[in-house]
Structures are given as C-alpha cells and as structure tokens.
Amino acid sequence: MRNLVPLIAALVIGISSAHANDPKAALGAPSVNELQATLDDIKQTLGLVPDMFKLYPEQALPAAWQTLKAIQLNPNSAIPCRYKELLGLAVSAQIPCHYCTFFHTEAAKLNGASDAEIKEAVALASLERQWSTFLSGYQTDFDDFKQMTDQFIEKTKRAAAEASASNMNFTSIPASPEATYAEVAQTFGRVPEFIRNIPPAGVSGAWGGLKVLAFNPHTAIPPKYKDLITLAVSAQIPCSYCVYFDTQTARLDGATEEEINEAIGMAAMSRHWSTVLNGMQIDSSRFRKQLTQAFAYIKKQSAPSPHNSQAKTRG
Asked: Alpha helix locations (H) across the chain?
C-alpha cells in the first residue's frame, strides 16, 4: 500500500498540471464548445435561454438539458405530450411549486388539454396525497395492502374476462358509513383496516371522492393516464403503498412498462426543476414572462406555414 502513495501523488500532480491553465476543466466543466452548443440548443428550442438555465452549474447543464429534452420535451416519447404535461402539473401542484404549476398548466394547454382535464389532474394529485396520508398515518401493514391490491386486480380481471359490467354508481356518494363499507367490500372483497380507521363522519366523502374521480372510467382523462398521473405523484411523495397500487392499476388499464417508467421519469424531472427554481429563488414575474415568450415562440414554430397550408389544401 505504501508503494502506491507516490504513484497516486504523481497522478494527482499530473492531472493538476494538465488543468493548470484551464480552471473550468479542473472543476469538471464541459468544454466551451459543449456548453455553447447546449445554450444554442435551448435557444433554438425555446426561443430564448431562461434564467433557470443560465444560473444552473455549467458543468451539469448539458446533461440536465439533454434529460429534459429527451423525456419531457420529446414529442415522440411513450406518453403523449398532453398527458405528460398534465402529469407534470399534478406533481408540481402538490409539491407545491408555483413555478412548475404555471409551466405545466400552460404547456398542457399548448398541447390541447381542456380545462376539465387540467382541473381533474390537480384533483387527482390532491386525492393521492389524501390517501397516502391515510395509509401512512394509520401505519397500514404493507404486505396486507399488497395482498388487498392483488386481490382487487384479479377480481377486476375476472370481471373483464366474463364481461361482467360493474353495478357501482360512479356518480354518487354513499349515504352512510355502512353504505360506504358495503361499496368498499364490493370493490376490494373486504373493508381494509385503513378505511375503517377513517373517522365515520368523513369516510363516505373520502371514499366517494376517490370513487367518482379516480375509479370512474368516464371522466375527462382516460383511466390509463389517470393511473400514470397518480403514479407520478406517489413516486415522489414518496408513498410505497400508492406506488404499488398505481403501478398495478396502470398495467391493468393497459399501460406499458415504457409508459410507467416515463411517468416516473417525468415526476423526477418535475421535482428536479422545482428544486432548482425554488433553491435559486428565480424571480417569479420574470420566470412567467420568459416562459410566456417561450410558449409563444413554440406555438409560432409549430404553426403550419401558409405555403404548406396551401399545399395541403391543393392535395
């Protein structure tokens, strides 16, 4: 071991000498060309370079931008852009992050999301937080919760295979705790302990809210994307109970593993940039102004040119 010390020391001295005239390289910063290429790409994509990128550590900016562009800004990824932005909105709404909430709301609208879908995404996030609190606060046994979830999934699969229509009324709130427990038992095969722990005066409303929005197959957002939205929220709370349940229901509703992974990646991305924006105390009004300019630029870039429109008309 003693013989290695001079070798290591010589190596360190050699590295230090090599970077003596390049302090950025010594810090592990990207080359000037790489950094400039990243800034140029941001400007080409957004029409300007927002402050959040200018203030980000130079050595980490190329990787951070590449990840953001490859997942969130990629129009050809697994999840359609509209639902990715609704997913990002749900995550940012319950962090809560006013920067990201503004960004994802405007981006969702830009990608065709309706007001009903935007409201629904926010409400789904709030429900996920509520039920995560119930599960964690009542110290629910995780293995028992997994077993209940697995039974629910198998029960639902059998009903689908037998073409058995659910007789649950997705538009009403049970009139009493007893009626609530009956619906819960019908859904899960039993009444889990964490639901019995909810104060009786509030259990009907709590269950009714979950049923009419999250479980209802006829709301504004399709079931698969509702599952992916709640999975994204639960992944970064983090809530192991909800992650397990939402992953299983997403698969049940037809989500692919690529979509599931992307939903989690979007959640991580929203947390990442929320931390950057809040930690660097970016000026809110300036942020909104820059993002508004960026959205106007993107909208203009995506609009068909008069020449192309005429060509399509002639075709």
From this structure: 4-18, 23-26, 32-46, 51-54, 61-71, 81-94, 98-110, 115-137, 142-161, 177-188, 193-196, 200-209, 223-235, 240-252, 257-279, 284-302, 306-314
Q: Is residue 180 assigned to a domain?
A: no
- How far CA 14 is from CA of 3, 100, 110, in Å, comes to 18, 45, 53
Determine the residue type at 241: Y
CA distance 263 to 260: 5
Distance CA 32, CA 25 (A): 10
Beta carbons of 107 and 295 less than 8 angstroms apart: yes
- 314 within a domain of the structure (yes/no): no
Q: Is residue 137 part of a domain?
A: yes
pLDDT in tens, 215-257: 999 999 999 999 999 999 999 999 999 999 999 999 999 999 9
Asked whether 228 and 263 are in contact (CB, 8 A), the reply is yes
Two tokens at 26?
């010594």
CB-based contact 102:288 (threshold 8 Å):
yes
Task: List the one residue out of 4, 50, 63, 216 whose CA is nearest residue 127.
Answer: 216
**DSSP state at residue 280:** T
Please count the structural domains in the chain.
1
Q: What angle do CA 172, 175, 176 make, to 5 degrees?
A: 135
Q: Is residue 101 part of a domain?
A: yes
Q: For residue 290, what are the domain limits?
A: 79-161+221-298
pTM: 0.85
Average pLDDT over the chain reads 89
Task: Say how far apart CA 156 and CA 249 lie, in whole Å.
Answer: 10
Number of Cβ within 10 Å of residue 156's Cβ equals 17
CA distance 106 to 270: 15
Task: At 222, give phi and psi (nearest 5°).
Answer: -60, 150
CB of 15 within 8 A of CB of 49?
no
Asked if 113 and 82 count as a contact pair (C-beta separation under 8 A), the reply is yes
